Amino acid sequence: MKILIVDDFSTMRRIIKNLLRDLGFTNTAEADDGTTALPMLQSGNFDFLVTDWNMPGMTGIDLLRAVRADDRLKQLPVLMVTAEAKRDQIIEAAQAGVNGYVVKPFTAQVLKEKIDKIFERVNG
Amino acid sequence: MAKNDSETGDFESTLKQHARELVSSLESGNFGEAVHLIHQLDQARDLHVYREVGKLTRELHNAIVGLQIDSPGEHGKELSQISDATDRLSYVVQMTEKAANRTMDLVEESAPLVNYISYESQSLMVDWQRFMRREMSADEFRELAKRIETYLSRGLQDSDQLSKNLNEILLAQDFQDLTGQVIKRVTQLITTVESDLLKLMLMASKVDRYAGIRHEPVTPEETPAKQKKSSQGEGPQIHADKREDVVSNQDDVDDLLSSLGF
């Protein structure tokens, strides 16, 4: 299981990376915005994408749309972990095809729940 | 301000007085007198506008000096308050990032120590129970005793290290005091700048009034800042619990998504 973590703050990437490691996911890579993440996804055989929304360059929602528009990537499960908390934004992300949405600040438990749920659905 | 108001009053009473005289001279057919009055009115207005513009220019200059937004080059090496505030906020970002990384370093350093205690306790427990059930040979027991001794001495050493790490994690939170002070100062600056800008606006409206300039009212929707694309994101919501259009926690998100069929 190879996971890409996209966030513009290195501390947040590190927190998510540590939490994922505790959940048994040790194969992770990092990117600081959509512009650097997209080519990595296109060439890197990733199985899961965890992305922030608000980033300089390409935002998370635009990255999600780019992933869904790419024939080879459109099935990739995407979890959004973000401080964006407007109802309209959550609906926008759902319509763009997000698989899970976690609002910051979040707990390890919530992250685990959402990831489990996504894989249950993907594998089921 | 009081002086200013009385001057405005003078101008307005001159205006009223001359207007009345103008009407009566026009009604009595005295056009020469009327033209003369119009000329006087014009002069009075010009004089007033010149005086006001002069005064406002001085006030404007003072307000700009107060804002200290001029380039640092003009006054030697001293930074303007705005760029000073920018520097201070970058310092906050640096401090919080440093503290977060220091804390995570210590947590990552501590995790293996805890893992050892947990793993070795489990393993020793199994053998200890075998010993208690008298299922252990003398040789095996000597082996177990050695392992227990290693475990105890490493436990002493590791717990020492863990308590040091916990203390350091505590100390890494000292940024809160420093960043709190910096943010308070920047907040004060913003309040001052806001009130200075308000003064500027009031002055500008006075200029408009004397010069007779009218503006089309601008509706908030037309300002470019509000036309921001939602895809840009807004960052954390500060008063989430008081707003209808914002979720306050993960449960709200889950409810919203399940209502959409997720």
From TrEMBL, chain B:
<dbReference type="InterPro" id="IPR050992">
    <property type="entry name" value="CheZ_family_phosphatases"/>
</dbReference>
<dbReference type="GO" id="GO:0050920">
    <property type="term" value="P:regulation of chemotaxis"/>
</dbReference>
<dbReference type="GO" id="GO:0006935">
    <property type="term" value="P:chemotaxis"/>
</dbReference>
<keyword id="KW-0283">Flagellar rotation</keyword>
<comment type="similarity">
    <text>Belongs to the CheZ family.</text>
</comment>
<dbReference type="GO" id="GO:0097588">
    <property type="term" value="P:archaeal or bacterial-type flagellum-dependent cell motility"/>
</dbReference>
<protein>
    <recommendedName>
        <fullName>Protein phosphatase CheZ</fullName>
        <ecNumber>3.1.3.-</ecNumber>
    </recommendedName>
</protein>
<keyword id="KW-0378">Hydrolase</keyword>
<dbReference type="InterPro" id="IPR007439">
    <property type="entry name" value="Chemotax_Pase_CheZ"/>
</dbReference>
<comment type="subunit">
    <text>Homodimer.</text>
</comment>
<feature type="region of interest" description="Disordered">
    <location>
        <begin position="213"/>
        <end position="262"/>
    </location>
</feature>
<keyword id="KW-0963">Cytoplasm</keyword>
<keyword id="KW-0904">Protein phosphatase</keyword>
<comment type="function">
    <text>Plays an important role in bacterial chemotaxis signal transduction pathway by accelerating the dephosphorylation of phosphorylated CheY (CheY-P).</text>
</comment>
<dbReference type="GO" id="GO:0009288">
    <property type="term" value="C:bacterial-type flagellum"/>
</dbReference>
<dbReference type="GO" id="GO:0005737">
    <property type="term" value="C:cytoplasm"/>
</dbReference>
<feature type="site" description="Enhances dephosphorylation of CheY-P">
    <location>
        <position position="181"/>
    </location>
</feature>
<dbReference type="Pfam" id="PF04344">
    <property type="entry name" value="CheZ"/>
</dbReference>
<dbReference type="GO" id="GO:0004721">
    <property type="term" value="F:phosphoprotein phosphatase activity"/>
</dbReference>
<keyword id="KW-0145">Chemotaxis</keyword>
